[in-house]
Amino acid sequence: MDKIKLISFDLDGTILKDSKLSKGVIDAFHKLEKSDIKLVVNTGRSIDSLQEMFETLKLSGKNNYAILTTGAVVQNIDTKEILKHFHLNISDYIYIKNSLKNEYDLSVYTPNKLYYVNEIFPEIIEDNEILSMEIEKFDENKEIEISRVNIMGSSEKLDIFEKTHDKKFLKDYYYVRNIPISIEILNKKASKGNGLKAYMDKLGIKPSEAIAIGDGNNDISMFKVVEHSVAMGNASSEVKSHAKYVTDSIDNDGFVKMLEMFNLI
Length: 265
Fold this sequence. Notes:
With about 260 residues, the chain is α/β, with parallel strands linked by helices. The strands form 4 sheets. The protein has a 6-stranded mixed β-sheet with strand order 10-9-8-11-13-12, sandwiched between helices. Strands 4-1-14-15-16 form a 5-stranded parallel β-sheet. Strands 5-6-7 form a 3-stranded antiparallel β-sheet, covered by helices on one side. The protein folds into 2 domains: about 5-85 and about 190-260, Rossmann fold (3-Layer(aba) Sandwich), CATH 3.40.50.1000; about 90-185, Hypothetical Protein, Haloacid Dehalogenase-like Hydrolase, Chain: A, domain 2 (2-Layer Sandwich). The chain has helices at about 25-30, 50-55, 90-100, 120-130, 155-165, 190-205, 220-225, 235-240, 255-260, and strands at about 5-10, 15, 20, 40, 65-70, 75, 80-85, 105-110, 115, 135, 150, 175-180, 180-185, 210-215, 230, 245.
C-alpha cells in the first residue's frame, strides 16, 4: 500500500457529536501533528464557524485548506484565500426560485454569509446554530457568486417534495439532502468529492495515497476520488455500501479506530 499522504474527513457525525470533539479524537490529531499527512476538513459548514476547532486540533498556521459548503468552496483556513469556488449565479437562483413557485422557503449561502429570502424561518435558525454565519436578507438584484441554495422546511414537507415534486429542474445541478430540514442545490461540479479532487490535484496526491471518511450522503462523492474510503459505523446502509471499509461509530471513536487500522497513530 502506498504511503498515506492525506486524510479527508467529514465533521458532524464523524469527529463531531453535538458539535463537540471527544478527548480521543483530540489526542489522535495531536499525534498526527508529528506526521506529514495533510488533514483536510470536508464539511457542509463555513470557515468562520470552525476557527476554534482548527486551533484545538492544531490545524491552524500550517497552510492547510478546508473543503467547505458541501464541496463548493476550497479555502485556506489561515488566509481564507479561496483556491476553488464551484459557484452558482443569480440567474441560477432565479431559475430555482421560479421552478418552486414560492411553495418552499429558500436560503442562500456564499463563502461568508447566509441569506434568507422572504423571512427568517425556524429551519434557517436551526441550521445556523451549527453554521454560525452572519444572516442578511437576500437581494436578487445584486450579482454575487452563490455557493449553494437550500430548499428548507420541516422534514415532513421535504419528504413530500422528494416523493411528489417534479425534479427535472434540478437536472443541471448537484443536489443532496444530508439533513432532514434541508435540500442543498449546488453547481453541478460542486461536491465534497470534486472539492477534494481539486485539492489533491494541487498537491499532486494520488488516490492511492488518500483516505476519505464520513457518515452522510454528501460524503459518498469523496469516497469515489480516493482508494481508501471509510464509512462511520453510524452511517446509513446506503453510505456504507459505497465505502471500502466500515469503522466503529462516533460514540466509540470510529475515526480514531480508522487511524489505528491504517497504523497511522
